[in-house]
Protein 1
Amino acid sequence: MEFAKLSDEAEIVNLYKAVIESVNLTEVRLGWNIDIYPDATFINSAISKGEMCVIRDEGKIVAAAVINHSVNPEYADINWEIKGPRDRLATIHALAVLPQKQGNKTSYRMLSDIENYCRKSGDLAIHLDVIDTNTPAYKLYIRNGYKEVDRIKMFYDVVGTREFWMLERVL
């Protein structure tokens, strides 16, 4: 895993476009829309802040995710095992793997690399949410040691108010 550079922006946008197109052909309804989220503004901001991480295969970006400490206000009401301080609780946003690379352990590698990075950075846990229709992502996290802490309704601009699994990985 490495952190993306601004020169990677177009390739990352194309990765998310491919994932959105692929997911929209399945029962998994992420609600992602490349014009709203994860859009070029979100991607550019994450790269500029040093939060966009990628995995390359033969020089091509095959996976992307954002790692930071930013969460929705609802996270404060969850009964997490590790409650803080907030700046020691990492969050993964917009984890995506190129459709051609799904099923070959790229997502496992990405999670492992993110967890190792977070440990080295002094984070105590990773907290994240998964929209209730994204069963493949939920299963991925559970198989990798994340625990379901709660299931709540939460608002995001791109999907409105929906139900989300709230997951935690104690580092």
Note: The CA atoms of residues 91 and 127 lie 5 Å apart.
Protein 2
Amino acid sequence: MQYLFCSLILLAGGAASAQQMPQELVGKWVIQRELPTKTISCWGEEEAKAIVGSEIEYTPDSFRWKSTVVKHPAVEVRVVSAEGFERENSSPSVNGSQVSFRALGITAPDAKHVSIPHQPADITKATTEIPGDEVLLKNDNTIVFSVCNLYFEAKRLQPSDAEIKAAIARLGENTDEKGFTKFEILYEDPRRSTELLVATLKPVRRSQYVGGKHPQVVWNIRALRSLTGLDFRAPTHADLTEDEAHFLDHNPKTDEVQFFGTWMSRDRVWVAPVDAQTTIIRKWREWFSQHGKGFKYVNDPVADHWYF
């Protein structure tokens, strides 16, 4: 059924494009229930009930259901229209399978569809699918997927404040093979993570810091840049050294600088004078107070966009 579902979706929507895992999908999800659709399935009630309550996890470079893991998948993303989805996934006969956006609880006129190709899996003898390998994004916290032509709904598993705070405290320690930190837990609830990160910001001593000794506030601002795609600058009244002016990207007309700047080849960080730090921290707090709740977070994993 997986291949049928995939081909029908392709007809119903736009052309698929291979890309990284969509950031709105990254995180852990718990399968909540089977959705009441009229379909002909290769699964029975026993198989359907068995997956309810199990966990699906998506990371920027992997997909997991229970202990079954697909690493470095060539993810395909497309947009599917309600009309096209119903037309291509429902039988012309009233006695055949019938499924629609309305039956799935999707109220939008179209939805993003994510497909994760993989080798045939040995989940049950009836199918080679993995739950969650073909999903429709219902909203920010709900996905819908099909297994054996039965449809299920999964809800995002939000990390607790304690888990987010623990992840923030470890920033700079949890690194990938290139040495860059990962923000996966923060991406699971970017709004709350941003709120907690902003609350931690405080000035540190103006100085330069060698690799492995970057201040916590530097890592916290890197995380904020990654989550939001934003950065703030502020003027300083301090006299800057030549290196500070260069690495802090000093603007001689406005005297504005970045909170920190990094010498790429040596991973050495220059932190701005305290007056600029204080203003930048205030800007982050004002921005979150005014825009944080309804902001569209970007969850950008590309280190070149936020590390330096």
Note: The chain is about 30% helix and 25% strand.
Protein 3
Amino acid sequence: MSVIDAVIEALWMAFLMAWEILWPLILGFALSAVVQAVVSHKEMSRLLPDDRPRSIATALALGAASSSCSYAAVALARSLFRKGANFTAAMAFEMASTNLVAELSIILIVLMGWRFMAAEAVGAVVMVAILVVLFRAFLLPGLLAEAREQAERGIAGRMEGHADMDMSVTEGSLWQRITSPRGLTAISHYFVMDWASVWLDIAGGLLIAGALAAWVPNSFWQGLFLFDHPLLATIWGPLVGPLVAVISFVCSVGNIPLAAVLWNGGISFGGVIAFVFADLIILPILNIYRKYYGMRMMAFLLVTFYVAMAGAAFVVEAVFAVLGLIPQHGDS
């Protein structure tokens, strides 16, 4: 195969995946825009005063109702923290924003099947629960105070404009807020902003996934993910999945095409779930944590997020194996 033929094959595979997810993306972003238009950022901060179960559950619900862009989620989490939200609850919100939103669920169903969507949803809740336990055990008051002081400096990272934009409509019934002129304007603006915030990640994810699918043989992935050793693969997958994500530079819904390639290549079920979880610890976002909260908190978030992501993936794989819900490789 010539170089030109290889490039054409990679682009063609990327186009096929893009065409397959286009309308689900439009639907997901439309649903997200409607919800964002009726939920106020100020109200979010008020609803997240501590790390008790009620606040964490509220953080999950608010995160699921927000933008799926990882950068926007990270920026909004800092904004909530600066406005008085509990730090643990703000991080729970951040995780929910990138793992429980409608567009991610829709694309998972389209590209990989409903079992992956269900595993992502269940795993996100488990991941946040593990994170809360880790924060309660290891987040020292001094480190938190240091992070708050750094956050108050307001150093720019990425997508702060999206986080600060609050066009939500709070007057009238839910239907009146959605259908009012202000509501329709807010929905259209959020829809466009969501597209603008993630299109580079989606395009990058599709191009990388197309290239990997076309150029990298399955034998390479099967060796990397210990495909011929099922027990070891079950242990290794959730550990290596987040590490692959860290160096992929792709976040938000853009990592789902990559996840499909990895699954077809032989990574374990828990491994692919851990990979999807790990868009919040890719290298560019780690640098934003450093700017937002300081080097020590960035390191703390990297370690605790990684442990929570891998731990949740282990739990999900074990539960889905017992229930007989793990699909065969190549089904996506």
Note: Residues 3-322 form one domain.
Protein 4
Amino acid sequence: MAFGFHRARINQRLYGVNMYLLDTDTIIFSLKGNAAVQKNLLFHINDPIKTCVITLMELYYGAYKSQNVIGNLAKIKTLEQSLEIVTVGVESVEIFGLIKSQIEKTGSRLDDFDLIIGACAMTHNLTLVTNNEKHFQRIEGLKLTNWMCYPEA
């Protein structure tokens, strides 16, 4: 078991901490001022909230093809300072291979970036926060939540 994965499990077990990995769509909803996502961010303010380097790649791609390149780049730079960025390391590669093969055996496919995001979440024992639940639920064992729904107090 990779050290990071082991440490994440210990933190969650000892401290009862829910740890989250924000998917690209959730960050975009937040940047656009979606009330439910923003309320969930406040509701989970004491929980570790992270994003993946792959998500940042997708955000930069979107910024550079947008009408407001400079403004969107500034938002991403601010985001990078606000969240811990989970990198894709050697600890995720086997999980990526496993989940990609499992999905393809069912005759289905999933974009490699999404598979990498899922592998990162699983490696670090994070719950993936996405509005694209139907898409990601094909990854067996991946914990999902959707912050487009208002939190239950």
Note: Residues 90-105 form the longest helix (16 residues).
